[in-house]
Inverse folding.
């Protein structure tokens, strides 16, 4: 086998969060989640299976990467090799056009793009559902980045599903980047720690499905007033379970709170915008396109906010030539 494949996948931000695994070995999630894929945050990945290689190689933004990231890449490639009965190693080259490993879900677009590119390089005729299942085994949120628009991943689900195209409910996301540098605790470790030590973890798992239902209904109905409060509730419920871990997992930074406060003030003055946060200090704000420009300027002025990215809904992951 000496195949080449290249693909582009977009990051996604969960509107209804998942946090915790039902099955850590198979990487199945404990609660359902629903996300919006973002056009402006992309990963471009190429895979070349090469018989001359003695091991897999992973190059991220021009830098050769080893350790745990390489092991995760190899594990996904192993699944593809098993599928086609090959033992050939691969060279993987990946570039993100946004800050990586800082709670900006680079693993989501990264593993989705890798699964797309690797199946193509291996000559598999994989469906998006198969690619999503491969990506999910590496990073559950990556299962959702295989599809564009609004996407769900059920509790214990093998692959994600399309809920609605972005155009059916045109919202935008502002990403207030609050601190530079990699995040303190990787999400998989953070989830395990929350499951093991937080007395609020079981409350989160119990409450999350109803919040997911609320988010899904609001997306189907394209009802922003119903969606927004459910999105904030999902994020804060998840963070409450993290804060109650021992030692606590605190992803909130002073600037994160400033952004949240600003979004609430925007609402008090009649605007419509709602925040969400993942396993990092950045705050993502869901807003209607007509208000996005004004809020973007306001958030960019806040102390500790280094950059504001603005994105509309993104498309399915796709293969590209060369
Ligand atoms: O699947 P991972 O390891 O990328 O974890 C994602 C966890 C959150 O971003 C916090 C929530 C989510 O549903 O995306």
């Amino acid at each position: 086998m000496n195949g080449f494949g290249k693909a582009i996948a977009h990051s996604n931000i969960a509107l209804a969060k998942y946090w915790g695994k039902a099955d850590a070995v198979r990487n199945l999630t404990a609660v359902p989640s629903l996300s919006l894929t973002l056009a402006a945050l992309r990963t471009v990945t190429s895979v070349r299976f090469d018989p001359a290689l003695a091991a897999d190689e992973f190059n991220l933004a021009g830098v050769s990467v080893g350790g745990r990231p390489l092991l995760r890449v190899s594990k996904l490639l192993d699944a593809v090799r098993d599928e086609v009965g090959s033992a050939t190693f691969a060279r993987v080259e990946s570039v993100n056009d946004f800050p990586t490993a800082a709670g900006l879900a680079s693993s989501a677009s990264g593993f989705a793009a890798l699964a797309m590119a690797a199946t193509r390089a291996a000559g598999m005729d994989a469906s998006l559902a198969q690619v999503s299942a491969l990506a999910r085994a590496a990073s559950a949120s990556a299962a959702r980045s295989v599809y564009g628009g609004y996407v769900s991943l059920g509790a214990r689900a093998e692959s994600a599903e399309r809920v609605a195209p972005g155009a059916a409910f045109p919202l935008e996301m502002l990403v207030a980047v609050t601190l530079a540098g990699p995040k303190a605790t990787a999400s998989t470790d953070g989830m395990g720690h929350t499951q093991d030590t937080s007395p609020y973890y079981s409350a989160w798992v119990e409450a999350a499905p109803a919040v997911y239902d609320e988010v899904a209904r609001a997306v189907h109905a394209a009802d922003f007033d119903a969606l927004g409060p459910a999105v904030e509730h999902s994020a804060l419920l998840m963070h409450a379970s993290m804060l109650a871990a021992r030692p606590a997992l605190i992803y909130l930074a002073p600037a994160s709170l400033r952004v949240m406060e600003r979004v609430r003030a925007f609402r008090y003055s009649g605007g419509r915008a709602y925040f969400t946060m993942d396993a990092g200090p950045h705050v993502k704000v869901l807003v209607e396109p007509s208000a996005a420009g004004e809020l973007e300027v306001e958030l960019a002025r806040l102390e500790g906010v280094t950059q504001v990215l603005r994105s509309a809904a993104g498309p399915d992951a796709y293969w590209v030539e060369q």
